[in-house]
Amino acid sequence: xxxxxxxxxxGFRGFLVRLGRIDRRWIYLAVAVAIGVPMLAxxxxxxxxxxxxxxxxxxxxxIPEGSIVLLSFDYDPASEAELEPMANAMVHxxxxxxxxxxxxxxxxxxxxxxxxxxxxxxxxYHPDKVEGVDYAQLGFKTGNEGVIKLLANSIDGAYxxxxxxxxxxxxxxxxxxRSVGDFKLVASISAGYxxxxxxxxxxxxxxxxAFKLVGGTTGVQSSQLLPYFPTQMEGMLIAVKGAAxxxxxxxxxxxxxxxxxxxxxxxxxxGPQLVAHLLIIALIVLGNISMLAAxxxxxxxx
Amino acid sequence: xxxxxxxxxxxxxxxxxxVFGVVGLxxxxxxxxxxxxxxxxxxxxxxxxxxxxxxxANEAAAKPADGAAAEPVTGSTPPKRIWVDTDDPxxxxxxxxxxxKRVPDVAQAVWxxxxxxxxxxxxxxxxxxxxxxxxxxxxxxDSTGLTKEEFDQxxxxxxxxxxxxxxxxxxxxxxxxxGIWVGALLTLGILSFLVRDNPFYKVVESILIGxxxxxxxxxxxxxxxxxxxxxxxxxxxxxxxxxPGLAQSEDPTQDFLLxxxxxxxxxxxxxxxxxxxxxxxxxxxxxxxxxxAGMRLTATIEADFMAQxxxxxxxxxxxxxxxxxxxxxxxxxxAGTAPSPGREFNFxxxxxxxxxxxxVVTVLIYFFFSLEHKGVVGKTARVGxxxxxxxxxxxxxxxxxxxxxxxxxxxxxxxxxWLNVVK
Lengths: 302, 423
What we know:
The complex is a heterodimer of chains A (302) and B (423).
Chain A: H1 2-7, H2 11-20, H3 24-40, H4 51-62, E1 68-74, H5 80-97, E2 100-105, H6 110-125, E3 135-140, H7 145-153, H8 155-158, E4 185-190, H9 196-204, E5 212-217, H10 219-225, E6 235-238, H11 239-253, H12 265-293
Parallel strand pairs in A: 1-2, 1-4, 2-3, 4-5, 5-6
Helix pairs in contact in A: 2-12, 3-12, 4-11, 5-6, 5-11, 7-9, 11-12
Chain B: H1 10-31, E1 40-53, H2 57-62, E2 81-84, H3 89-97, E3 100-102, E4 109-116, H4 120-138, H5 148-167, E5 168-172, H6 174-191, H7 199-233, H8 235-241, H9 252-270, H10 282-312, E6 319-322, H11 326-335, E7 342-345, H12 347-366, H13 375-418
Helix pairs in contact in B: 4-5, 6-7, 6-13, 7-8, 7-9, 9-10, 12-13
């Protein structure tokens, strides 16, 4: 250790080199401060919706009122922070527009995620909606893309009952729904496999003209899905940024007076997000400067 | 390659962590005083009556009703029984119409429906609002200028509204508070790994893995084994014990015979646990792999190959459709036809199309290894590398955004639900 210290040049260059060798836990602490302080200060930023969020909004707006839409909750609590805001906004949007919603999940905990959104958004802002008539919760079905393949053929091939154990044939909402082609719109809020990509591959490819497909994705997954927009996926919400933009569009057209924060989670999270990103950019720049300063030193960058 | 990190200064780090925590909490509590891990539930008292469906005479003869969820049955299927709120107008109407009837000799049930409230601030707001409403409704109706009939009607409406308000209560929930404490400690346990590996983290990690595995097992049992296998092999037993809403199959014998195939494959798959005959497990694996390979091949060719090629074949010059200008409208009016929309050159779209073409060609050349990457090919491949680097950079940025959001989500829980320093 002593030997390494002796290698460092004196002065500002030495400081820069030492900066590159900082204990990584200081960076963790800096990230915690960068997130914690704006959160405590309740930093809020205006959101300007861009193309993908607008396309998602327009896709839901453009289908006739009363259409049946399928919302697939393909995520679990590990991705809840990213995807819950867009799920909430989408359910409020569909319900406000008068669409009838069928919930399902390709992830085991997706059903619980959908239940949470049903309780906090659908039942809260739209208490007039009746289960079985205005919405149905099919729940989770194991089988990954196999479930989508079955749904493309027939609903009751994949689901014999809904999540509460009611036979599919006894749910009024599904009386005229034979397959996924009978939905006007399918939305997959997805954290990975199986998710939006499988909906493109197994449902949209099988019947490209039958329904509109939109997707909400995590940041990590979005680069995989971007090529599908806008030809195969008509709308796309990318991570919490996409959710914040979409929330803006939805609440501008369908405002709520009571507890509006339930439809503003994405926008709330963009304040700390901005500061954290600035910190990361600063760290990348400093890291590169430090690397350049260490060039030529023994044990340093070359 | 960068040099290894200098020796960590643990004391300074811990002091900083504590200072940050204490300062943050103090500032937060200064602006938002109140207890931590405060949880409330909204409690609504509901009175329910047991009713049963009265099937129409012809339906009762032709189609037996499904077994009632509340009353599993054996033998002949009784009418479906449900607990309902008889004050609900829809239920009241059904009772009058005779499609539902009260089950005799069963007392009414009174229970409290507990709904968790998002956060303590919302709960306090709702409590204040309920108190105000109750206070307002407690005052008797002013009879000035009202006939007796009008007064009685308003008084009845007021009493009914007051009853609804009084039936709804907001109370603190120690059970949910304990849940918040457990969640907070588990979160801190996982985050403690950032300082260094420690026993607290190990315990929390084991809990997470154990709970996840158990949950997966139960989900697989209830969502796959029960409806897709057991329900086909023994539908009556499953209907009576596990899935009361299970629909009658049109051909139970065929279902039974078909279900024997996955049952056989499952047994063969589990055979690998036996001391001998492990090769038997290879056959069901072959079925699984073969099936998925076939499914994925067609899906990938359609969605990721053909459709992507079609999507890449865009016109190089992009135009946007715009509303018809005044001249076009005037010309159309003169001709007695509908004005046709105009077209405007889209610079951004054109640039995107050109960049897309360059990106596709250069990246494809980079991955074309039959030609040595020298000269023109090498330079083109180099451009392809730049496109790849930009793509990876964008993916990295999005990954950072995703990871930060997850951390923000946890911080919201710690600062909001647990410490109660943010709303």
